[in-house]
Amino acid sequence: MLRTHTCGELTSKHIGKEVTLAGWIQKSRDLGGMTFIDLRDRYGITQLVFNMESQSALCEQARKLGREFVIQATGKVAERSNKNPKMPTGDIEILVGKLEVLNSSATPPFTIEDNSDGGDELRMKYRYLDLRRNPLRQNLALRHRMAMETRKYLDSLNFLEIETPFLIKSTPEGARDFVVPSRMNEGQFYALPQSPQTFKQILMVAGFDRYFQIVRCFRDEDLRADRQPEFTQIDCEMSFITQEDILNTFEGLARHLFSKVKGIELDNFPRMTFDDAMKNYGSDKPDLRFGMKFVELTDIARGKGFGVFDDADLVAGISAESCAEYSRKQLDELTEFVKKPQIGAKGLVYVKYNNDGSVKSSVDKFYREEILKTWTDKFNAKPGDLILILAGEKNKTRKALNELRLEMGNRLGLRKPDVFKPLWVIDFPLLEWNEETRRYYAMHHPFTSPKPEDIVKMKTDPGAIRANAYDMVINGVEIGGGSIRIHNKELQKQMFALLGFTDEEAQNQFGFLMNAFEYGAPPHGGIALGFDRLVAMFGGSDSIRDYIAFPKNNAGRDMMIDSPSEISQEQLDELKLRITK
Amino acid sequence: MLRTHTCGELTSKHIGKEVTLAGWIQKSRDLGGMTFIDLRDRYGITQLVFNMESQSALCEQARKLGREFVIQATGKVAERSNKNPKMPTGDIEILVGKLEVLNSSATPPFTIEDNSDGGDELRMKYRYLDLRRNPLRQNLALRHRMAMETRKYLDSLNFLEIETPFLIKSTPEGARDFVVPSRMNEGQFYALPQSPQTFKQILMVAGFDRYFQIVRCFRDEDLRADRQPEFTQIDCEMSFITQEDILNTFEGLARHLFSKVKGIELDNFPRMTFDDAMKNYGSDKPDLRFGMKFVELTDIARGKGFGVFDDADLVAGISAESCAEYSRKQLDELTEFVKKPQIGAKGLVYVKYNNDGSVKSSVDKFYREEILKTWTDKFNAKPGDLILILAGEKNKTRKALNELRLEMGNRLGLRKPDVFKPLWVIDFPLLEWNEETRRYYAMHHPFTSPKPEDIVKMKTDPGAIRANAYDMVINGVEIGGGSIRIHNKELQKQMFALLGFTDEEAQNQFGFLMNAFEYGAPPHGGIALGFDRLVAMFGGSDSIRDYIAFPKNNAGRDMMIDSPSEISQEQLDELKLRITK
Question: B21 vs A240, A249, B78, CA distance in Å?
């Protein structure tokens, strides 16, 4: 080893010891008689001291070293006169007696500090320098720790990690595949997996009963902010289980991770049906860190002459604690907010339950104070609270009210990054109707099992069928989802028919899975958790990019290696491909 | 759970207990009054009993169940009258009181037994049935266990597992890349990584100091037997280390795996230079499970009038213990063996050191018994031993003698699958001269560091430069290899020049790595171990295919999912590609 210790481990108990450290120069201060260098490695920072009087040549040499030079320094650990209690190594310094420059460095294009002065593009291009910064280093260490703990937990429950192939087959259903031309099979292509879904089901047919994999997946989608063309998921499947077994096993995983990695002991996860989540929060991923559950006023608000409410499918609102004194300006801001095109409400009605017990509303004209009091009662509001009400078509109103609720949560500081409120959303609809194509689509995927008691509706009312499908939601973020699968080939055929697949299409795309189902498929189900998202949440961030070592930008480009790029004509010829422009 | 226990865990201590099992019907025997079913899951086999007298309806139902049906059975654990000591559950059986058929099965196309009657192609097509067989199930469980233990060991040494990207950039040097057309960047392609080599070096520049990854890699090569287009490696890199640190760390990993997974405690790994390996074994991956070290006779065998030896660059042989009584036929077989085109020797000379102390040779005409005795002395041969000698050009002769040595090892049963003899081969040449293209190629890769003391030869005698490169070899198989890297950008430039890269080519292909080296690259080095090969070796097999869940055949096809396959014209249009035939 070129070092005896790391830059993060020396303390006063090492005083007097001769040590060798190696690392990067974080900064250097020349005080005339003394030169101080902060030496950095992955583990911390240690102060090196060069004394002009006793070691003039060495000190001269040290003075010339620039930021990010790589050096090896040998010397004695000494007590600092000027201790720094903020650093683990702040009690000591190294009186350097020997110095070797292992490498020089050009001046970095941005500062290697916790808060860098580099812009996004620059930091992506020089990712190796950005990764030297503490926050990113800690993010990747967190990621490693979470992957280790995930594997330990699942291994302890007899799960086997089984690697599934990356060169698979393109299936037009769902998102767009990345394809890989095959040189040995002219004119044919592999596809990169969007998920190992069919392979994990095949593994259940093969009898592996508890499978997991922390695995890269690929989607060639137009990238929205914070989507990556390649991403990592914790992919799992179990046989001979019920939905309840899966929920318990994987909330167990989440609890294990919170406990081991963050020292947080979570309660059992509450379960909420999709219908309840939509009715009470207007979202299938409610943020339970705060209240403001929806209250519906449709029945009592209609028929009083206020046209907007009278014509509404749904009148519903939330009660914001202690906001009755919101100013005109604040209320206008909220109205502007809900009227933004992406939210789409036509307007906002408020009811102020004043501290003096009086009630004031933007619809005073139509509703007497007495009536408004019945509303505040419905909300269980207290004097000082502000009730915000939207109305219109049911689903649109719920969606808009969800956005308003989250906005109020943000304004009131109720969405604390260090508080974690998980839940399971269950009983999702099996199908979604698409008005444009006039057909049903699988809400989850075509292998999701309907609830046995709803199978009778397959002919009569497919839209009302509930699925044995579930999402794990934490703090309003969908961390993962899964379902109990169809293991009966007849039911699977009915499902494909319902989704408008011809037998031939179904056979062509999923034939190998349907063939496998001929040979004794066990009851099974599973889940996939978004690992990038989960790590980012543990790190207290909404953005996954800083939790991936080498992410791509929004155009799918790796700025550091400048990829994708052109390939040679020889490569194209070998693949029998021509580019058409 | 649809079961209370697995099919592998019930023993006499459970007798009297009511249990529920679920699994596949391995076989069923109808003895009139009783029907026995062997129920199988991942954990074992348990015998179910149906009694015609007490449960006639149930028994009738059980009789109709075919092989590989999936059932759930509830009943009491009872002591078997006819115990089977070969099975962990052989002391008990289940007196079934309740039976549910979870799924039926078509008749499998081959038997699900340890030794199946299915051919290779058939078993690949129905991989999910093949994977139900014990040997394959155990192989994948072994693979999981080895991956877990690898991670535990490296984690305990502060290595971080960091995921590197799969969509990277094509580099023409080396093997052929698989490429991935980018829809969002017209006419441009990503490439799938042949290894994360440059990324792990970038991570060292980024200060991560101890990196590993169990990672899929891709090579679009014409597949020789037992090569896969996608394969898995344990990829590692360390900073601030010497070669010795890497050897110690990773023989530590191998020892940890042997200890934890196989209960075998290995000694420290011997180190052998490339030159010694070639001289003594004719191979850079010698199998040390047995002796037969080469002995060179060039000096004492030449000049006695035997033209073959007189003209030879090298005369060398091996001594096979107790083989002096080999028959004419056996010796002819060996002669045929060495004359095969892929071995390429012109002939074989033998010297029998008979049990009576006399010496008999195929070259008696040229060498008196007295002379031949000096040969047997050189071999330290004992009466009863057989000496086999080849002669010719040095490298060719060594290569052929290596093959002969391995063949003799096989014939004498000296290559035992349960004996493990590891070593490090070190001091590889830096460069290989290619006579056809008349240029040097990097023996390892262009980032490998020459030995500091050999750098002076870069101008004068490049072929003689030794590299800080090393291979881990076990039982004659190269398990992995690595090197100390060049971290100095000037040396890296010289290296590229030596390999015939123009500055532009080097910049184009490896520019981002060379740019990174401008900003303080630490001294670093690493290794990559072939995980498929390592697992197969632990499993006692030469073939990796049975240690991969879903392998491809020799044409690179996945027989189960029938991939690669054609994609739609729409997909091609989106990618701006046309297939030329």
Answer: 10, 20, 14
Find the range with the poorest average confidence among A69-73, A553-557, B387-391: A553-557
The pLDDT value given to residue B552: 94
What's the pLDDT at A173? 65
Q: Which helix (H) or strand (E) holds A246?
A: helix A243-257
Q: What was the pLDDT predicted at B507?
A: 84
**Closest residue in chain A to residue B131, using alpha carbons only:** A206
Alpha helices by DSSP H, listed for B114-183, are 120-125, 127-130, 134-156
Beta bridge partner(s), residue B558? B563
Q: Given this model, what pLDDT does residue B173 score?
A: 65
Sign of the torsion formed by the C-alpha atoms of B561, B566, B569 and B574 = positive
Q: What is the sign, positive or negative, of the torsion defined by CA atoms of B341, B345, B349, B355?
A: negative
Q: Same domain, yes or no, for A382 and A462?
A: no
Residue A209 per-residue DSSP state: -
Q: What is the mean pLDDT of residues A65-74?
A: 97
Contacting residues of B for A182, CB less than 8 Å apart? 556, 564
A103 to chain B: which residues are within 8 Å by CB? 487-488, 520-523
* CATH number of residue A72's parent domain: 2.40.50.140
Q: Do A208 and B102 count as a contact with CB atoms less than 8 A apart?
A: no
* Chain B residues with CB-CB distance to A520 below 8 A: 24, 68-70, 103-105
The answer on A424 and A399 residing in a single domain is: no
Q: Residues B48-77: pLDDT tens digits?
A: 999 988 889 999 999 999 999 999 999 999
Query: pLDDT per residue over B460-512, tens digit each?
Result: 999 999 999 999 999 999 999 999 999 988 898 889 888 888 888 888 878 88
Measured between alpha carbons, how far is B579 from B181 in angstroms, rounded to an integer? Answer: 13
- B384 and B484 co-located in one domain: no
Both B401 and B426 in one domain: the answer is no
Domain boundary among A411, A427, A446: A411
Token pair of B316, please?
A: 């060398």
pLDDT at B224 over 80: no
A437 has a pLDDT exceeding 70: yes
Are A403 and A481 within one domain?
A: no
Q: What confidence tens digit (pLDDT) does each residue in A337-380 have?
A: 999 999 999 999 999 999 999 999 999 999 999 999 999 999 99
Q: What is the pLDDT of residue B445?
A: 85
Domain limit, last residue, from B392, B411, B430? B411
CATH number at B389 reads: 3.30.1360.30
CA distances from A94 to A5, A75, B448 (A): 12, 6, 34
- Model confidence at B441: pLDDT above 90: no
Tell me, yes or no, whether A383 lies in a domain: yes
Residue B558 included in any domain: no
Determine contact, residues A357/A348, Cβ cutoff 8 Å: no
Residue A491 amino acid letter: L
Strand ordering across the sheet containing B295-296: B295-296, B314-320, B386-392, B349-353, B359-361
If asked whether residues A451 and A511 sit together in one domain, one would say: yes
Record: contact A578-B578, CB cut-off 8 A: yes
- Decide if B207 and A41 are in contact by the 8 Å CB cutoff: yes
CA atoms within 13 A on the CB side of A180: 27
Verify whether the Cβ–Cβ distance A577 to B580 is below 8 Å: yes
What is the residue range of A361's domain? 290-411
- CA A477 – CA A474 distance, rounded (Å): 5
Residue B268 in this model has a pLDDT that exceeds 80: yes
C-alpha to C-alpha distance for B245 and B265, rounded to whole angstroms: 21
Based on the fold, state whether residues B345 and B374 are members of the same structural domain.
yes
Do the domain assignments include residue A207?
yes
Task: Determine the pLDDT at residue B118.
Answer: 86
Q: Which pLDDT score is estimated for B288?
A: 98
A70, A191: one domain: no
- Taking contacts as CB-CB distances below 8 angstroms, the residues of chain A near B193 are none
